[in-house]
Each structure stands twice: as structure tokens, then as C-alpha cells.
Specification:
Length: about 200
């Protein structure tokens, strides 16, 4: 396995703590700027169940745990990278709050509908050149998670609606765009709060 580089958690109980990331260009960890922006938009994630698809080194999932999420399922098909996630979880003392799954994201979503629908937030960060993100979104919509956030290149435009999801917000940071989808008909207080942040 290649030597690990690192990035750091931006806020919460483990602010400043290290997350191991693979060296090279195969894995692109979500930057600290994008993570800060994401959780500023999401607000309180205390007690949330999160699914981190295409998890890579797990930077978003560990950020969520640091900010109070109850548990995170990390889905990553590259086993050496998933071992880095396990190392970080052990070092932070949160292994019992983590589930590590070595699987293709689309296959896992299709096989585990109950786990998807039982999550509060699904984060999707496919490789920027991977054209399978829409297929994953379509499968996620069929399982009806309340909120899905997709990180992608700003040049890639995602549909207004896909599967059972509807787009409610976009935010761009450099070459990265975050697109927020909610389950159709799930206009609850959390969605209202997200809309208010968009207007602000």
C-alpha cells in the first residue's frame, strides 16, 4: 500500500485531527473549504446517520462524526484506501460508530435499500470523470433517503429531478460544485432551514 498523506478535520470534537489520505491522484479528498461550506449549509448533524458513498479516505464522514453524527457507513471499493479509513477510525477512537464496506457504490445502493432509506444524509462524491453519478442518484432516489448531497465538477450539470429526488440547491467552490437533492415530498423543517440558508 502506498504511503499516506493527510488532511485535517475542520470543526467539532476532533478539530485539527488528522485524516490519512492516499498519495497520488487516484483519490481526491474533499477539501477543507468545501467541507466547511457543506456543514455550514447542513447545520446541526448531531445524532444523524450518514452514508458516505465513494468514501475515499472518509474525510466527509469523519467530519460528520466530529460534528456529532451518530454513525457513518463508508462505502469504498478500493480496499487499501478503506484500510486507511479503518486506521483513522481507530486513531480517533470512533471505530464502533463506523461501518466500512468494500463495494461498488451503485451495486451496494441497489443491494441495501433499507440501509439507504434509514440514513438521514447520503453524501455522494464520485470521481469527477466518472459518468455513473446519475445512475447512483437514480438508485438512491428509488430508496428515498431524505437528503442527498452530490459533490462533482462544476462543469457537470445534474438534472433537476432524478429517481425520487429533486434538486433544491447548488453551491460552487472553485472547480467543485455541491448539488443538494431531497426526497420528493420531504419538505420538512430541515428542508426549510436549508432553503433559508440559501436565501441568506
Amino acid at each position: 500500500m502506498a504511503a499516506a498523506a493527510s488532511t485535517r478535520i475542520t470543526a467539532g470534537a476532533w478539530r485539527g485531527r488528522q485524516v490519512d489520505t492516499p498519495t497520488g491522484l487516484a483519490t481526491r479528498p474533499t477539501t477543507s473549504l468545501v467541507r466547511q461550506a457543506l456543514f455550514n449549509i447542513l447545520g446541526d448533524v448531531d445524532g444523524a446517520a450518514v452514508v458516505d458513498l465513494f468514501a475515499g479516505a472518509g474525510t466527509v464522514g469523519f467530519e460528520a462524526l466530529s460534528r456529532g453524527a451518530a454513525r457513518v457507513t463508508f462505502v469504498e471499493r478500493d480496499r487499501p484506501t478503506l484500510r486507511l479509513v479503518a486506521q483513522t477510525a481507530e486513531r480517533l477512537g470512533c471505530a464502533q460508530r463506523c461501518r466500512l464496506v468494500a463495494a461498488d457504490a451503485l451495486d451496494w445502493v441497489r443491494r441495501r435499500p433499507a440501509e439507504v432509506s434509514g440514513a438521514d444524509l447520503v453524501y455522494l462524491d464520485a470521481p469527477y470523470r466518472d459518468r455513473g453519478a446519475i445512475a447512483v442518484l437514480d438508485a438512491l432516489g428509488a430508496q428515498s433517503p431524505p437528503l442527498v448531497v452530490c459533490e462533482h465538477h462544476r462543469a457537470a450539470m445534474l438534472p433537476d429531478a432524478v429517481g425520487g429526488l429533486e434538486r433544491v440547491r447548488e453551491a460552487t467552490y472553485g472547480t467543485t460544485r455541491l448539488t443538494f437533492f431531497r426526497r420528493v415530498g420531504a419538505a420538512d423543517a430541515a428542508d426549510d432551514a436549508l432553503d433559508q440558508r440559501e436565501r441568506g
